[in-house]
């Protein structure tokens, strides 16, 4: 006897949003600049 299973799967994703913005904070560098990364 042979069984065959079938499934249809639909996947949708969002647009990723606006990302994030963050800055490097160090004790001896109050204006450290961006901390790296691509914001998304």
Calculate Rg over CA atoms. Answer: 23 Å
| Poorly predicted regions | none
Oligomer: single chain
> Could you give the distance between the termini?
51 Å
What sort of overall outline do the alpha carbons produce when their principal axes are compared? rod-shaped
How many helical stretches?
0
Major sheet: none
Strand content: under 5%
Rounded mean pLDDT score:
78
What is the number of strand segments?
0
Helical residue percent band: under 10%
- Output the structural class: little secondary structure
Describe this structure in words.
The protein is mostly loops. It is 0% helix and 0% strand. The chain contains no helices and no strands. The radius of gyration is 23 Å and the shape is rod-shaped. The termini are far apart. The mean pLDDT is 78.
Nutshell version of this structure?
It has no helix or strand.
Protein traits:
single chain; about 40 residues; little secondary structure; about 0% helix
Give the helices and strands, then pairings:
Blueprint: no helix or strand
């Amino acid at each position: 006897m042979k069984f065959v299973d079938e499934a249809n799967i639909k996947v949708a994703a969002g647009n990723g949003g606006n990302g994030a913005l963050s800055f490097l904070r160090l004790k001896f560098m109050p204006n450290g600049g961006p901390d790296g990364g691509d914001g998304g």
